[in-house]
Design goal:
It is built from 19 helices and 10 strands. By secondary structure, it is α+β, with helices and mostly antiparallel strands. The protein folds into 2 domains: 286 residues, no CATH class; 138 residues, no CATH class. Strands 1-8-10-9 form a 4-stranded antiparallel sheet, with no helix packed on it. The chain has a two-stranded antiparallel sheet with strand order 2-3. A two-stranded antiparallel ribbon has the order 4-5. The two termini are 41 Å apart. Keywords: Lipid biosynthesis, Lipid metabolism, Membrane, Oxidoreductase, Steroid biosynthesis, Steroid metabolism, Sterol biosynthesis, Sterol metabolism, Transmembrane, Transmembrane helix. Its main location: membrane.
């Protein structure tokens, strides 16, 4: 993945001052400290020990810390991480690195850098994922739901989360320190500082990412582009591996696998494999071409994405929901979302790579002074960020299968002995353990529908960031484009 030839002598154009994002250093401080806490809150407060949410949270006036600790299984900070989880995580990372290096791959060039030239990328995420999942499938065929990988993941969910959080902090710190070896504004190795990542504020630059495309040479594995590698692996593949682990957990718990957990896993697997298969398209995303690599991306890729996006399957592993015919409605939502998502991105990528392609040559556009073309018809004439609508609609299909969620955990052998509710669902083991909705019904939606709400906020914020970047890049051409395409994400609404 060496740079394409020598660095260009092209002079980097002076750009408008970039300014702070995420409310600057205060926002960076809050996000980098609060989001790990949110990850732990989702993991502990929706659990298989007492319920989802933990019962004490339903009665805040009588809530005590000691009672809450008991309900979430808190045994001290030492239980947040263990050696086995650390070794397993690094083993997974090493396997991903080995597959990246030794499996056949396509070498493609990225977009042109501000200083000229293009970096080369080695892409084989799709085949790497197939390799890893094939190993897991073989183990499952041989040992079923008791395959040690599945039991290890569900037994060590929190320690695995902690390990990845710590790695994300360490990685962000490493790339920040390394960025000071970049020869700015022109580096002979085509290294660049991100436009908004060298403000001079240590905390903010560490958070947002100081270097645009940090790379590292690792013995045996060669040169690795850290940002593109982290974008799709190990976190994104880890997301669906966690989903599969929760399917196996549901089977161990109840002796069956429900249509709801299968539907979510299939939908999320399709989304993930779409990204893996279309890996070259990642090189044209804002993450790669504009954002530096710092804590924001390292934490998002390694901890936030896999461990919070799987919350619905983790919920269903402990409270099975049968959808029946309703599965068709959820599937329709997923299909519509995916159709919008894939159609819009295909149209954009085809137009970028070959405007004379018969499928896109009819599209109208604005020719900008920067040399780029802004599409003003087709999908992109409906809204300036229409692809985000598809993303958001798909997120509904991940949450809807959990229905009106919420459950409590109880044991029929508790004293005094009381009959289980009529809607109780018993675990295979331990004997007498069961779940039932009870007064928790509906309150679990705080957890299982969290993703849909969060994703809406994320996409709106991302759209606002895109708008600002495009305003700086295209100037008056962007204002003209906004007049022709007035809607941001949802035509005639937003």
């Amino acid at each position: 993945m060496a740079p394409n030839g020598k660095a260009s002598s092209k002079v980097v154009r002076e750009k408008q001052p970039h300014g702070y994002e995420f409310f600057g250093p205060p926002g960076a401080l809050v996000i980098s400290t609060a989001l790990p806490v949110v990850c732990y809150a989702l993991a502990f407060f929706c659990n298989d020990i007492s319920g989802c949410p933990a019962p004490s949270l339903l009665h805040p006036s009588t809530l005590t810390l000691e009672k809450l600790k008991q309900e979430v299984g808190w045994e001290g900070f030492s239980t947040l991480i263990n050696t086995k989880a650390v070794l397993a995580t690094f083993g997974y990372y090493l396997l991903s690195l080995a597959l990246n290096t030794f499996l056949p791959a396509h070498e493609v060039e990225g977009t042109e850098l501000r200083s000229g030239g293009r970096l080369k990328y080695r892409l084989n995420s799709f085949s790497s994922a197939i390799f890893i999942l094939s190993i897991l499938a073989a183990g499952t065929l041989y040992q079923g739901a008791e395959f040690p990988v599945w039991t290890f993941i569900t037994d060590n969910f929190v320690p695995l989360l902690t390990t990845n959080i710590l790695i994300s902090y360490a990685l962000a710190t490493y790339v920040y320190i390394s960025s000071f070896s970049v020869q700015h504004p022109t580096d002979p190795n085509m290294r660049e500082l991100a436009a908004g990542g060298h403000t001079g504020n240590i905390l903010y630059d560490w958070f947002i990412g100081r270097e645009l495309n940090p790379r590292v040479n690792i013995p045996i594995f060669g040169e690795v582009d850290i940002k593109s590698w982290m974008e799709l692996r190990p976190g994104m593949l880890g997301w669906i591996i966690l989903d599969f682990a929760h399917i196996m957990q549901q089977y161990r718990n109840f002796g069956r696998v429900t249509d709801s957990i299968l539907l979510i896993t299939v939908a999320q697997t399709i989304y993930t494999f779409d990204a893996l298969y279309m890996e070259p398209a990642v090189l044209t995303t804002i993450d790669i071409i504009s954002d530096g690599f710092g804590f924001m991306l390292s934490f998002g890729d390694l901890a936030w994405l896999p461990f919070t996006y799987c919350i619905q399957t983790r919920y269903l592993a402990n409270y099975p929901v049968e959808l029946g015919w309703k599965v068709l409605g959820v599937f329709a939502v997923q299909a519509i979302g995916y159709w919008i998502f894939r159609s819009t991105n295909n149209q954009k990528n085809r137009f970028r790579t070959n405007p004379n392609d018969p499928r896109v040559k009819h599209l109208k556009y604005i020719q900008t002074e920067s040399g780029s073309k802004l599409i003003t018809s087709g999908w992109w004439g409906m809204a300036r960020h229409i692809n985000y609508l598809g993303d958001w609609v798909m997120s509904w299909s991940y949450c809807l299968p959990t229905a009106v969620s919420g459950y409590l955990v109880d044991y029929s052998l508790n004293h005094p002995v009381s009959p289980a509710p009529a809607d109780a669902i018993f675990f295979n083991k331990p004997y007498g353990k069961y779940v039932y909705p009870g007064p928790a019904k509906g309150y679990g939606m705080v957890f299982t529908y969290f993703f849909m709400v969060y994703f809406a906020v994320l996409l709106i914020h991302r759209e606002r960031r895109d708008e600002e970047k495009c305003r700086r890049k295209y100037g008056k051409d962007w204002e003209k484009y906004r007049e022709l395409v007035p809607w941001r994400i949802i035509p005639y609404i937003y």
